[in-house]
Write a structure and sequence with these properties.
By secondary structure, the protein is α+β, with helices and mostly antiparallel strands. Helix content is 26%, strand content 34%. The strands form six sheets. An eight-stranded antiparallel beta sheet has the order 11-10-16-7-8-15-12-13.
């Protein structure tokens, strides 16, 4: 598996929007280079998690070495398969930093979409050689001339440079491998001291932390003592090797190569994504640029439906965190019982974590409504708030995170997209036609408006044709208030939400109306109120069950009936003082849909 000359190594990644055929092309590249025996071939071979195969998305990065035999000799092609979703943008940026070239895959039936652009700009920032590939040309609905024109306008390349392929049938796939050899530059080494970039890590229960690394300078051998420059941890390498696609141990990894390193670590925190590894004997003075700790942007409470499952949930989160260093959690107690406040990279990350907890650990969970990180100024001091119930009653200023969103839609839906963005308090930044049929809109939107139902609303208003992508921008001051839900005189922390003052009444009214339908009737009246500060802005009442106590009175004096009704009313009043109201899971999910 060792190719001696650095001139014969090519490191490349595949970037594309969801469902444009990235994993299918990776399968064909493995087939053409005979990396996998025919009897072991399966679809989406690099998507190892069941969840990835089901959803058709890539969650964890993979690095595979392909040996490509041509008449001029053998070439080592290192394919780095990256996640495409915006939630994993930091991991994608580190994987792109490990490459010299990128295949830009565009679906011939759908054209350029938002995530295509986002990942393309990321690759251009790292000065990668871009090879445009038009995929799915075999589809009856493929519009090859129109999409080719879009790519020419976007990249400013000649039409002959665009490779037209079908990853499904294998047509044109060998041309892709030849283009990688000819057009992607070989890696270069600038010094003798060892520098390696960690671009992904996962936890193996038998071997500890396994990290994917790209060697920029020097070499790493089994038995070397190395240091992670970000975490300052030192450890000894137990094994180095590469995936082809099965793990294959090697005596050493040299400059320009991509592979894995195993150091027997039990904590994934010690070797984070983006960190630089160097040898203890001959250390480098400067780490590779771009290292940062992944920041949680979306926060939610996770609670077991059975109180006895609290410890099981703690163990499950701890095990998941071994594989996912960006997951943050801390214990929390609220009206919903004992649970954990969790931080996620985005909504997709939150969905994946919750689904994995329910599937792999057989837990039944309730998630509170997602919120974002706010900056609140109290007495000149800036506090960070992730839970709406923690917002103080008096503060000088509150700032919310804002994102820059790129939306691409057919021109006939521009009006619908613009009205949706304005409803979500968006500010228009720009608009341009990327082809005669499709428009790119750029808006600045509050992250809190994007994380709930924005994607569903966008798809429904554009019949599924629009796509969007966003990147964090900054914090901006806004007139925000906390809506508190009070059920039977008791505040319910988990139902608190932070909204703009202009929308407070409408959101509060919608929330109590929905809760009135969902909270079961009791033997006594249950008032459901929405409050901003001390002021009640909306109220609904869940009517009590009522026995007809006057049914046995046939005629007679009215005072007899009144006496029975008064006695019933007094009993209901006593019951209300001691009775408690169980709030069902549907009530917490209702907050997400308002």
């Amino acid at each position: 598996m060792r190719v001696t000359s650095i001139e014969r190594i090519r490191n490349f990644c595949i970037i594309a929007h969801i469902d444009h055929g990235k994993s299918t092309l990776a399968d064909r590249l493995l087939d053409v280079t005979d990396a996998v025996p025919e009897r072991e071939r399966v679809a989406q071979i690099l998507d190892t998690m069941e969840l990835e195969r089901e959803r058709g998305i890539t969650i964890k990065a993979q690095a595979v070495r392909l040996l490509y035999n041509r008449p001029d000799g053998e070439w080592a092609l290192n394919l780095i398969d990256t996640p495409g979703h915006v939630d994993f943008a930091y991991e994608v940026s580190r994987a792109i930093a490990a490459c010299e070239g990128a295949l830009l895959i565009v679906d011939a039936s759908q054209g350029i979409q938002a995530q295509t652009l986002a990942n393309l700009y990321l690759a251009m920032e790292h000065e990668l050689e871009i090879i445009p590939v038009l995929n799915k040309i075999d589809l009856p609905v493929a519009d090859v001339p129109a999409v080719t024109e879009e790519i020419v306008e976007l990249l400013g390349v000649d039409e002959v440079e665009i490779l037209k392929i079908s990853a499904k049938t294998g047509e044109g796939v060998e041309d892709v491998l030849d283009a990688i050899v000819y057009r992607v530059p070989p890696p270069t080494a600038t010094q003798d001291q060892t520098r390696a970039l960690i671009f992904d890590s996962h936890y193996d229960p038998y071997r500890g932390v396994v990290s994917l690394a790209r060697l920029f300078d020097g070499e790493l051998r089994k038995g070397n003592r190395v240091r992670a420059m970000g975490s300052e941890e030192q450890f000894e390498l137990l094994e180095v090797g590469c995936y082809s696609p099965k793990p294959t141990a090697l005596p050493a990894l040299g400059a320009g190569e991509v592979g894995y390193v195993i150091a027997g670590l039990k904590d994934i925190e010690a070797l984070r994504v983006g960190d630089t590894v160097t040898r203890v004997e001959e250390p480098v003075s400067e780490p590779l640029p771009g290292y940062a700790q992944a920041q949680s942007t979306v926060f939610s409470g996770l609670y077991p439906t059975e109180g006895d499952d609290f410890e099981r949930l703690r163990d499950a989160l701890s095990k998941l965190q071994l594989n996912d260093a960006s997951l943050f959690f801390e214990p929390e107690n609220s009206r919903m019982g004992f649970g954990f406040r969790c931080g996620f990279l985005g909504l997709l990350h939150m969905e994946i974590v919750q689904e994995r907890l329910e599937r792999e650990f057989d837990l039944d969970l309730i998630a509170s409504s997602p919120s974002v990180r706010y900056e609140v100024v109290v007495d000149g001091e800036t506090l960070e708030i992730t839970n709406p119930s923690d917002l103080p009653e008096a503060f000088e200023e509150i700032r919310e995170p804002v994102v820059r969103a790129t939306l691409i839609a057919p021109k006939e839906y521009v009006g619908a997209v613009m009205s949706l963005c304005h409803e979500k308090r968006g500010v228009s930044v720009g608009m341009e036609y990327i082809s005669t049929r499709r428009v790119q809109l750029t808006y600045e939107l509050p992250l809190a408006e994007v994380i709930t139902d924005f994607f569903d609303a966008l798809k429904s208003r554009t019949r599924g044709y629009a796509s969007y992508d966003y990147e964090p921008k900054d914090y901006e001051s806004a007139d925000l208030v906390k809506i508190e839900v009070i059920v039977s005189g008791e505040p319910v922390d988990a139902l608190s939400i932070i909204v703009h003052r202009d929308q407070a009444y409408f959101r509060g009214r919608a929330l109590v109306e929905k809760l009135k339908e969902l909270i079961p009737r009791q033997q006594f009246e249950v008032p459901v109120q929405a409050a901003v500060g001390k002021r009640i802005i909306a109220r609904e009442t869940v009517r009590a069950y009522r026995k007809d106590v006057t049914a046995k009175c046939y005629g007679g004096d009215i005072t007899r009936k009144r006496k029975l009704l008064e006695r019933q009313k007094a009993g209901k009043r006593r019951m209300k003082q001691v009775g408690s109201v169980e709030i069902p899971q549907e009530a917490f999910l209702a907050v997400l849909r308002i």
